[in-house]
Amino acid sequence: AVTVHLTLKHCRTCSLVTSSGHLIGGGQGEAIDEAECVIRMNDAPTARGYGRDVGHRTSLRVIAHSSMQRVLRSRHELLNTSQDTVFIFWGPSSYMRRDGKGLVYNNLRLMNQKMLQLDDLFKKETGKDRKISKSWLSTGWFTMTIALELCDRINVYGMVAPDFCRGRQHQSVPYHYYEPRGPDECAMYISHERGRKGSHHRFITEKQVFANWARTFDIHFYQPDWSPPPLPANRTLETAIAAAPVVPKKT
Fold first, then answer.
1. In which order are the strands placed within the sheet that holds 151-157?
2. Which CATH class is domain 12-242?
3. 200-222, pLDDT tens digit by residue?
4. Cα dihedral sign for 119, 158, 33, 219?
5. Which residues lie closer than 8 Å to 116 by C-beta, 6 or more apart?
6. Which of 37, 45, 89, 145 could be a cystine partner for 11, CB 3.0 to 4.6 Å?
7. Distance CA 75, CA 102 (A)
8. What's the pLDDT band for 79 if we cut at 50, 70, 90?
9. DSSP label at 172?
10. How do the domains of the chain map onto residue ranges?
């Protein structure tokens, strides 16, 4: 059984570890584990030889409803309670109901008010209505907002800058470090950013928001290392997003 009603502790420093292929070969595991709290997402593993690059500790794991089956397949590794890991599950109410009619599972509490707050936050930061734009907020969005509430300083590992995939010579890495033959990260980002038929994430738009937050909050990006440039005095985040078309990499 997974305990979900634990009080989340406040952390002075947090390592927010993405699932990006950029982490492979970086040797950041020791630095990641040095943080007071280590935050991971979905079914991203720490065993199987990945520890040197992604660390071994997990304080908090944020899991999307769509990743639940993959997590259960690796439950002996990912749901190991010996680390006192706290698990946060999120998803639409049709998947998270506790009355036996949920499409995925029924024994976990959904904070509907929190979900609505995150939708409102996305619209406030980007000027885009998530539902009208037919998109889903990513697990990364939920995880970053949770980290902002819990952590004084956030060190993010594996997250690229918003304009990374616009570069003609950007590095090609797998979307997930533990799926080396999986889709290319930038190809996935561009496909989702351009998608208009629903079930898409706005990965690049979200990264624009994260970069903006890093100008105000104690957020730092590693592997790759980057810092957001200051916005010109006459430019807002919304205009910056609108002026940043995505250019696919030439083959």
1. 86-90, 60-64, 37-41, 11-17, 151-157, 219-222
2. alpha beta
3. 667 888 898 899 899 989 999 99
4. negative
5. none
6. 37
7. 21
8. low
9. P
10. 12-242
238/149 Cα distance (integer angstroms): 23
| Beta-bridge partner residues of 154 | 14, 219
Helix axes 112-126, 203-214, angle to 10 degrees: 80
Helix, strand, coil tally for the chain in percent (to 5)? 35, 15, 50
105, 93 in Cβ contact below 8 A? Answer: no
Q: Each residue of 39-75: pLDDT tens digit? A: 999 889 998 899 999 999 999 888 876 656 666 666 6
**CA geometry: angle at 14 spanning 11 and 20, to 5°?**
155
| Interatomic CA distance for residues 192 and 30, integer angstroms | 33
Q: Is 140 left (phi over 0), alpha (psi -120 to 50) or beta?
A: alpha
Write out the two tokens for 171.
């590095």
Token match 């250019």: residue?
247
- Extract the tokens encoding 226: 């980057």
Distance between CA atoms of residues 250 and 170, nearest Å: 10
What sections of the chain are H helices per DSSP? 29-33, 51-54, 68-73, 75-78, 93-96, 112-126, 139-150, 185-194, 203-214, 237-242
Instruction: Let me know how long the chain is.
Output: 251
pTM tops 0.90 = no
pLDDT of residue 207: 92
Least confident segment among 10-24, 40-54, 95-109: 95-109
pLDDT tens-digit map of 172-195: 999 999 999 999 999 999 987 776
Are residues 38 and 14 in contact, defined by beta-carbon separation less than 8 angstroms? yes
- Tokens standing for residue 230: 């200051």
Rounded Cα gap, residues 147 and 71, in angstroms:
21
